[in-house]
Write a structure and sequence with these properties.
The chain has eight helices and no strands. With about 130 residues, the protein is mainly α. InterPro entries: Lambda_DNA-bd_dom_sf.
Length: about 130
């Protein structure tokens, strides 16, 4: 339920930021102008705005484009985007040429050998962390 409530808050805020009233009729009208599938009802729009439902990802994409907000931010919030960005930055800064070369070689191995190498690495990591 918390996830639906947080989505509704973000959707309402995005509509307000874009200059629209956060009303089901406005949402239904503006969404259906941009959606090529079967039209959504005012009741569906009401559900999105009132913590009853979260639209499917393809509909979130349309909402995001209309409201000029990143789809992942609309769906999950800014905190999730920052978490992904931090994780990506860690990889960019912490992985040098030798590691990238090793990862590339690893990815070229057949699945059974990748599994074996993964188990070896995890065993070493576990032994290292317990010291």
């Amino acid at each position: 339920m918390k996830e639906k409530m947080e989505f509704s808050i973000r959707l309402r805020q995005a509509m307000a930021d874009a200059g629209y009233a956060a009303s089901p009729s406005v949402l239904e009208h503006e969404f259906n102008l941009r959606w090529y599938g079967r039209s959504v009802s005012t009741q569906a729009a009401w559900s999105w705005l009132n913590s009853k439902a979260i639209p499917t990802q393809d509909k979130i994409q349309v909402l995001a484009e209309w409201l000029k907000i990143e789809p992942e931010v609309l769906r999950f919030g800014e905190a999730v985007r920052q978490s992904v960005k931090t994780h990506h930055q860690r990889w960019e800064e912490g992985v040098g040429y030798l590691e990238r070369e090793t990862f590339d070689a690893f990815l070229q191995l057949p699945a059974p050998q990748r599994k074996l190498i993964r188990e070896v690495i995890l065993t070493f990591a576990k032994a290292h962390n317990s010291v």
